[in-house]
Amino acid sequence: MTDVVDKATRSRMMAGIQGKNTIPELMLRKALHAKGIRYRLHYAKLPGRPDIVFPRFKSVCFVHGCFWHRHPGCRFATTPATRPEFWQTKFASNVARDHRNRDELMAIGWRVATVWECALQRKDLDPVVTTLIGWLIGGGSEVIEIGGGDGQVRHSPRALRSHRLQISPQMPSTSQTHRRCAGSHGDNP
Ligand code: ZN
Questions:
Q1: Which residues have beta carbons under 5 A from ligand 1 (an ion)?
Q2: Residue 22: pLDDT band by 50, 70, 90 thresholds?
């Protein structure tokens, strides 16, 4: 029997089976911790048992594998060519469960971040971590999704209620400093 998925996809699929404590998740946790953010893990009392829980901010973060959780438009969200019905059923049930968990969390007042694994496939996690922390501390929107190799951020419009708030990280760009250039080294004639 030939394997229709390539090696990289296969390894992602296998890694996704475990679900908890994946390497990308560990990397994100480590980076958050380094920034002084404290959290709890896999908090079973909350819907969906979120991967990372920030009680202080009443927020949670799921680290989702792009394949199993069907990251929209992501190159890792491939569909195996064999047994298409099996996969479609499996994927649909995963996505439905994710949406249900998110809705239940929001219903009891928690904000929900989703970090897609593809956003964590880079050496420098700073953009992702900065965005996540900005959302945590800055408040605002109830959901945030961070994905893509470029650390792209987007809302889940379905999950938004009456308001849409900006969640993009606010860069302190207002303070334009003008360096005065003395221009001359020779004070003496
Ligand atoms: Zn992805």
A1: 66, 71, 74, 116, 118, 147
A2: confident
